[in-house]
């Protein structure tokens, strides 16, 4: 009897039923209290020794609130002999308690606490620590009184529960069991001795067939498509199919053995039992005459005849039931194969569901992300089918590679359709194929004649003869033993068995229309397992599609790497380096490279492990190659530009350090210095641009080649020193400009002084010989005019050099002579021109005078030839020329008062002589 969970109560008594209402029970079961101790003072609790005293104390309104108690009987403190069983003494001890001090119960494993309202049992022996059960005090007292009242009855004192149950079982259940056994023996092969043993062997083989699994799902392994197909094929080839074939062949041998033994028993019965022995069961006239037989009693002879007849009918009935027995085995074989196929699919579905627990219980779009599964070591071939040894949770089974599709989406390889087909083939289809690979027993050559008998419909119910007779005899003998009646006549028993066999109707043998594969498809477990596996795969791929959205951004990277035209970009950058755009592209490529490196390679989506290793291996080289090409070109362009700028800055530094002292070289050097100063800002910007380009390459590549690094440092140093060098050169140039301006001013002053002297000579006529002719004077004036032109040219050159030297600096320009031709040079040039014009007029006047004056004979003879060639001009023309010369002379006289009077008088005298000659 099981131990009560709480305190002992009247309901826990086996077979107890209430005798009447609780209100009608009297309190005579309470133990009497002595008169001397019946009315102690409520304030004094020293007299309280038992539970009854505690109840009386509380009824009188005592001040103490709690009493600690243990069982009154020391033997009751011992543990029960058998766990789960409580003896009557232990149950009774629950209601007889004694009060103890509180410090004593602290060391006990079990004690009781009684208050005004309830009784609490404290048990520290149970798992989980201290355990308490409570019951109201009034109810506990009622249970105690009821228990004491029941223990006073004679029934409880005389009989125990075991005796009552044994008596009931022997008188009631035994007859039911015998009657049921007789009924089953008429219908079941298991009740026939000829078929019971083989049927048990066949049942064991059926269990082997049911245990064969066509699919093997290894819990802690992640399968690729090839691994999944290979392992399932290997499992069926090495494990499932050999086990199935071995069990089927053993079943066939068991069936052949049954057929052989039953046929042999039937043949032996036909050969040893004569027909008259089946009807003559009274005398010994037809019994085999022998000394030993004649010495037996009639009762023994009749019993022997009944036994032989019974064996004869049993052997023939077993022989007649062989086709049905084989059909039954065939049906069981098909059923076992179908159940095995269904169990295989169900176990595989259970293994899949165990790998993704809770996947079917959650909404399709809300499956929690399992995170990246660790790459565990793959185990070898499993030794048992799916589900054996327990299934760990949250372990992906199928490997799926993440790929980027050309249309702009994220796909999987193998796809959902491919995995669904693989699972359908290797789990469902393989189970059906394996179940259908075992041929039915009746199709084997050894059982063809039994199959023909079944098709002819000539088989009767199994064991209709012998089993029915055995069952009837057993039932009669059992009833006789139980009721104590006298023994039945064996002849009557044999007649009854023969009548039962003859009265059994003939029934046609039904044949199953479905094979093992068809039966498996009708199994609920098969249908449920197939649906579960499909749903798990569908939900896993739905979750995989949700998780694969994070790979969508890598589509941009792949498209960029595929569409990027490096040749066109190189040509554009060589034409004009666009550093901001190039830097942005390199930064983007670096960000993409970091994103590709940080790509989640392993993720779990239900049954699937998403593997992005292939995607990373395809994107990483493309991004790295593009980044390397762009950074390499930028390094080349920046290096070339850096080399050019470094060469220019070094050349500028050489120019700034040249400092020619001569004016001619200084002007060219100053012009070059000014040009360099104007281009210094652009040069610095170009150097900064080249340095920034190299910095971009450095940030992308992590380091620069040694040559480029040296150039970069040299360019940065040269760019830093160039402004100071140009500044120093400019300061020296400014100082030298002042020096050259002063020297140039001195030269200008010398030219001006020479011009003043020339003008003075012209005004005083110091260069004219009084006896010289006008032509001679004009020749001399031509020389003076050439000299004046040289002075003017020299003065112009000096003015141009001054303007070039001083620029816009007024002080330097003033020091250099003003930057224009001196007035003295201009005055000298004007004086030379006036003198030349006056002496030219003198020459013309003298020519006219000579032509108008009388000539000598020699002159006339010399001029005769000239007159023959040209006619003399008319007098009017000569007069006009003279008048024109006089006007010119007057103009020259009025234009300048400084005209030499002697020259003017000479011209005037010549003109007057001409006029006089013309007048004469």
UniProtKB/TrEMBL annotation:
Residues 470-485, 494-506, 858-870 have a biased composition (Low complexity). InterPro entries: DHC. This is Dynein heavy chain. The lineage of its organism: Eukaryota, Viridiplantae, Chlorophyta, core chlorophytes, Trebouxiophyceae. GO terms for cellular component: dynein complex. GO terms for biological process: microtubule-based movement. It comes from the Eukaryota. It comes from Chlorella sorokiniana. GO terms for molecular function: dynein intermediate chain binding; dynein light intermediate chain binding. Residues 369-388, 470-514, 852-873 are annotated as: Disordered.
